[in-house]
Structures are given as C-alpha cells and as structure tokens.
C-alpha cells in the first residue's frame, strides 16, 4: 500500500517537475527565459540553419564547439526551404548542400526535379533517414545543454531559390500545381497548405519529448509579400539614395491569415 501511495504521489509530482525543467518564459520576468529551473540568456554564433538538412555538415563537431565557446543556442530549418549557390551572395554554406546532400523530411522518387537532376519528393512518404538525423541532432544538443529553434517554413525570396524548393510543383509528385512562390506563405493553394500542416504535425510529434526546444512557424514570412508600415525616423537616413532601409515591413493580410 505504501509503495502504491508513493508511486501515485510521484506521478503527480513528475509532470510539474518536468515542466519546471523545460524551456519556458521566466515566471518572474517574461522578458527572459528559464531552463532547468534557472534563468537563461540565449547566446550563439550559429551556422545558417542547415545542420540537419545538409548531410555533409558535421553537426556533432559544431554543437561541441558551440558549447566549448560558451554558447547555448542554435537554429535549424525543417527542410521545407533550401538555398542554391549564389543565394544572398553566398556559394557555400550549410543551407546550400551539394547535389545529393540535401536531406528532407520526405522520400525522393527516381523522377528528376528541376535542380540538377535531384529526385522529386513524395510528400506522402516520410524519410526515416531525415528523422534519425534530426533526433541524433536534438540528443546531441541536449547533451551540451544547447537550445534548438526549429523553424517550419521560410520566405523564398527569389525565383532562383524556388527552382530547388520542395514545394515547387515541378519538384514533387503530389499534384500541387499550380504552385507559385509568392503564394507559399498564404492559403491560396490548399494542396500546399495540406502538406504544410502534415509537416508541422509530424515534426511536433517527433520533437515533443525534447525540453531544449522551441518552434518558429516561419522565418520572415513578410519578405515575399511585403507591406510598408512605419517610415523610419529621418535622422537615421543620411541620404535618400543611401542603402539604409526607409520602411519597416510587416506581413500582408494573406500571410497573417496563413499564420493563424
């Protein structure tokens, strides 16, 4: 009887204890985070988010180095967005995998897509190799007490990037056509939205057990469909022809509805 009471008491205590250990807003100051019951500031000098999706990237060495240099945070993209040589003026980085090194959440088929003959994706079939790598990444990050931000989606920025994008209808076999770059972060193509939801649900279920994690729905979703909001203070702009940004940008209604 005593053992049963102790077990029941433990089962009541454990959820509260585990919740207190997980990453969360600090209970006394929500401007800060709390992790394992202690206040936390996130500090990093992260690679550009391709640690999982680029099979050539040595994430174990990377995470170890972050830890050894006193940093505690990194960010990863899910695989729904990828870059090509020349993206943002860069030819080589973790988010620009070499041909054949791009590992995504979905299986590929033998039929070639648009980018250098890489196989098309089948969104109906999950890629076990991707999730094995993702879990190993998360476990390694947890070992080093590194917080991970998982970003589900991203703006596409340029037509050149869309050529390699998994949701380009020419890069998958799931009948998403017409799939348009500027409509990716909107509700305009319900077939796209369906597979977006499937990806969010799958990743959430896979990663739910990790307490060193938080999710981001989309990186810079406003970038493809920008709307001006606030004109920046004139004193910040020495010359109208300068490269200083003149406007703050926000998401348009189409993207805000998609996010909700």
In short:
With 260 residues, the protein is an alpha/beta fold. The protein has helices at residues 2-21, 59-68, 128-143, 159-162, 190-207, 253-259, and strands spanning 24-25, 33-35, 38-40, 73-77, 106-112, 119-126, 147-154, 213-219, 227-231, 247-250.
Q: Biggest β-sheet: count, sense, barrel?
A: 3 strands, antiparallel
Question: Helical segment tally?
Answer: 6
Q: What are the secondary-structure elements, in order, as H or E?
A: HEEEHEEEHEHHEEEH
Nearest-integer average pLDDT: 87
Over all CA atoms, what is the radius of gyration?
21 Å
Return residue spans where pLDDT drops below 50 for at least 5 consecutive residues: 1-17
> What is the number of strand segments?
10
What is the CATH topology of the largest domain? Answer: TIM Barrel
Helix content: 25-40%
**Percent in strands:** 15-25%
Our measurement of the CA-to-CA distance between the termini, rounded to an integer number of angstroms, reads 50 Å
| CATH architectural label of the largest domain | Alpha-Beta Barrel
Query: Structural class given helices, strands, pairing?
Result: alpha/beta
- CATH C-level label of the largest domain: Alpha Beta
Report the CATH superfamily of the largest domain.
Answer: Glycosidases
Number of domain units: 2
């Amino acid at each position: 009887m005593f053992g049963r009471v102790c077990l029941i008491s433990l089962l009541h205590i454990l959820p509260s204890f585990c919740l207190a250990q997980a990453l969360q807003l600090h209970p006394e100051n929500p401007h800060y985070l709390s992790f394992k019951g202690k206040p936390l500031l996130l500090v990093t000098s992260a690679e550009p988010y391709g640690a999982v999706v680029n099979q050539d990237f040595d994430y174990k060495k990377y995470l170890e180095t972050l830890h050894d240099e006193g940093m505690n945070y990194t960010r990863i993209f899910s695989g729904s967005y990828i870059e090509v040589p020349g993206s943002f003026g860069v030819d080589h980085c973790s988010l620009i995998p070499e041909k054949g090194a791009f590992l995504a959440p979905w299986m590929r088929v033998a039929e070639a897509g648009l980018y250098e003959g890489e196989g098309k994706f089948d969104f109906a079939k999950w890629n076990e190799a991707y999730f094995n790598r993702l879990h190993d990444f998360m476990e390694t990050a947890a070992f080093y007490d590194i917080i991970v931000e998982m970003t589900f989606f991203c703006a596409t920025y340029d037509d050149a990037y869309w050529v390699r994008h998994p949701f380009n209808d020419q890069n998958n076999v799931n009948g998403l056509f017409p799939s348009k770059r500027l409509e990716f972060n909107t509700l305009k193509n319900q077939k796209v939205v369906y597979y977006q939801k499937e990806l969010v649900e799958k990743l959430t279920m896979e990663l739910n057990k990790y307490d060193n994690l938080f999710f981001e729905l989309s990186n810079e979703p406003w970038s493809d469909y920008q709307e001006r909001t606030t004109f920046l203070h004139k004193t910040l702009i020495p010359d109208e022809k300068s490269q200083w940004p003149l406007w703050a940008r926000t998401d348009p209604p189409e993207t805000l509805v998609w996010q909700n």
